[in-house]
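Case study 2.
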Amino acid sequence: MNLLQQTLEKIAGLDQEITAMARERVDKLIKPAKSLGKLEHLAVQLAGITRNLKPDFNQKAVIVMAGDHGVYVEGVTNNPQEVTAAQTLNFAKGLTGVCVIGQVSGAKVVPVDIGINVEMPADAGIILRKVKNGTDNMAIGPAMTREEAIKAIEVGIDIANEQIEKGVNLLGTGEMGIGNTTPSTAILSVLLHCDPLGITGRGAGLGKGGIEHKAEVIRRAIHLNQPNPDDVIDILAKVGGLEIGGMAGVMLGAAANRIPVVIDGFISTIAAIIAVGLEPKAKDYMIASHASQEPGAKRASEFLGIEPMLLMDMCLGEGSGAALAFPIIDAACSMLKNMPTFAEAGMEI
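Prediction:
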């Protein structure tokens, strides 16, 4: 808890003076006013985050948190749970979707075992920071203790700090965990005070009982555990996931270090909601990449209050959308760095 509290206390908002200067410069660039739309807003945000009118992100990383879920035994998905461990090994080999998309902008992928239910090889290129071997089954009791939930968040903070110390100056969040749309939907259902059926989707593959069964499992878990909607750590502990906590920690660590962090899809957005619930100013450092196909994704983005940049009909997870957004961030930086103002170009307007 000490690391979490120290991190929260370090998070400050955007630099308002630099933000104003960046906005003024963008308005004077040689183009019609507002003609680059969201790219202009992104450039101003990046300047305010970094306190630099010409930010440059030459070291990018997607931190992929991997963990299993006890609720898997309830038949909420038809995918073998062993896929979590197998795919995490593939991250280290550079074989997955996020890996090949990240190659476009030179981003590295950093896989972290925060809660896989088997022991991973020590020499496989995976950071081993396991809190426990998967969460407990939230349909019969809390997914984890409050202490474990805090530890998961602090693992994320630690990993973010380590990567930033190595020179990484732009982070993305990703996850791997068979069944993890179930706890993500449970968290959102608690926060929205709504029945889960309307926000429950297929995830990576439905179990035999379909959407209705998955929603009923979520409904039962919420009724049994009674998570406090005003306490995001309590929600995370009772119906959440270790990788969700880990991603929230990455976001908090990024904000504390004044580093932008790109949110992936539905599950990353749920982690962002947890992070913002702990410190609202963390939202200033977040960039939402894409609108996931999961039914709850739009509601989650609306609840968070950040509109995704891309509509690509993606639902892979892994941080794939975050990696896809990195070149757009580079473009915003290039606009600030390389595009002159009318005055600099010697043009009268």
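Residues 201 and 295 are 6 Å apart (CA to CA).
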